[in-house]
Amino acid sequence: MSTVPVNKQLMVQAIRRQAKGICSYELVDPDGHALEPFEAGAHIDMHLPGGIVRSYSLAGDPKDQTHWLIGVLREPASRGGSLALHDKVRVGDVIEVSPARNAFSMSSNATHSILLAGGIGITPLKSMAHELVATGASFELHYCARGPGNVAFANELKALVPPERLHFHFDDGEPSKGLDIAALLNDPSPGTHLYYCGPSGFMNACAEASSLWANDTVHFEHFKAPESQPSDLPEGSFEVHLVKSGEVIHVGPDQTIVRAIELTGRRVPTSCLSGLCGACKVTYLDGEVDHRDYILNDDEKTHCLTVCVSRAKGKTLSLDL
Known about the structure:
Radius of gyration: 20 Å
CATH class of the largest domain: Alpha Beta
CATH superfamily of the largest domain: Nucleotide-binding domain of ferredoxin-NADP reductase (FNR) module
Oligomer: single chain
Low-confidence stretches: none
Mean pLDDT: 90
Strand content: 25-35%
CATH topology of the largest domain: Rossmann fold
Number of domains: 3
Strand order of the largest sheet: 4-3-6-1-2-5
């Protein structure tokens, strides 16, 4: 029988300024117990002051069980997660944290890996660099930022990654002055895998530059949901059948599935509410799904959906809830 992952209470052991607007947070077990090792690229959900739940990538060494490390950019225009961390969380605070889970896994088949980070997108890629160094794998890390003052974990990266593999690219706010991503990714070698993460413009540039790569060699993670694309699917209402409880829930044209469920008094675990983290992934048993997430692979989409953004293409969906 499968067990439900249990959240834990972790203490903020250290907060360090890493770059302009970026702080790192070191999380430990208050009683000194070892933490679970995690997979490179994994993230956690943090329950922050004000009832906010947000996902953050783990940036430390996956094999280091003494602490977990995240890096957070303070964004005044955010939905509150980064502000809660920067303005309210202090050393010694104890925070509820989910188990680590991974929607940005590394391939075991790569003969060479290109890690391509934009700004705070370095966090999951730093954990990958730890893994690649530990296994002696071939890789290169490119870090794109506005300037040296915007580079997070600079000293750690310089100590970790051999200098011939570590490349910083600064554009002073003008992408045309920075790394030529199209040229870097123009001619993929057999066995090379690409991993990229960063802000939306950077993500678009990487996606366009790697459009001719084989799909299974390109891996990425969004920190923010891309701008919605127009859909030719109807936006009407539909019904969701909760198979375990036997209840039928009406989902309005302007409602999400998770909101409709919550209005009945039930609670579904959520975090990003944008189809980015997988916290609200559930199994569906019947119906055709309009998947609007950014994490499920083709196999998962045959039986799973994210209730924060997915909708029904038809009139009904049956969920294993």
